[in-house]
């Protein structure tokens, strides 16, 4: 399944809805979306990941980039993360830098 991403921003909350496979082919597009959408006024990032079936290390680097771009004091919340994707995040220890929720 190809990667799909939608983004919206409202009242300082930037929400990404991700679907498909976030890998080395799709990561540059997602990286660019983060660059454009995450601005200093953002106070929270929400990633709806219930339809994201796979994430490679390139996708994980995008999450790290989002964390860096958002800066201190900005919560990053992953919602509905599939078990395989959640395991990738946990193995790196990055789950300690964000909030993971089953549903929103």
Give a verbal description of the structure.
By secondary structure, this protein is of the alpha/beta class. The chain has one domain: 2-Layer Sandwich (Transcription Regulator spoIIAA), CATH 3.30.750. The protein is 34% helix and 36% strand. The chain contains 3 helices and 5 strands, in the order E-E-H-E-H-E-H-E. Strands 1-2-3-4-5 form a 5-stranded mixed β-sheet. The longest helix is centred in the middle third of the chain and has 14 residues. The mean pLDDT is 92.
Major sheet: 5 strands, mixed
Structural class determined from secondary elements? alpha/beta
Mean pLDDT: 92
CATH topology: Transcription Regulator spoIIAA
Which terms summarize this structure?
STAS_dom; STAS_dom_sf; 104 residues; 34% helix; Transcription Regulator spoIIAA; Anti-sigma factor antagonist; Anti-sigma_ant; 5 strands; single chain; alpha/beta; five-stranded mixed β-sheet
Brief summary of the model shown:
With 104 residues, this protein is an alpha/beta fold. 34% of the residues lie in helices and 36% in strands.
Question: What's the SSE blueprint?
Answer:
Layout: E1 4-10, E2 13-22, H1 27-37, E3 44-55, H2 57-70, E4 75-79, H3 83-92, E5 99-101
Domain STAS: 3-104
InterPro entries: Anti-sigma_ant (IPR003658), STAS_dom (IPR002645), STAS_dom_sf (IPR036513)
Family: Belongs to the anti-sigma-factor antagonist family.
């Amino acid at each position: 399944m190809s990667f799909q991403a939608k983004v919206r921003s409202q009242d300082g909350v930037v929400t990404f809805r991700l679907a498909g496979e976030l890998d080395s082919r799709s990561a540059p597009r997602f990286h660019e979306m983060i660059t454009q959408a995450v601005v200093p006024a953002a106070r929270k990032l929400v990633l709806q990941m219930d339809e994201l079936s796979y994430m490679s290390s390139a996708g994980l680097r995008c999450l790290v980039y989002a964390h860096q771009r958002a800066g201190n004091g900005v919560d990053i919340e992953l919602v509905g993360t599939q078990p395989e994707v959640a395991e990738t995040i946990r193995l790196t220890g990055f789950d300690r830098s964000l909030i993971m929720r089953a549903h929103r």
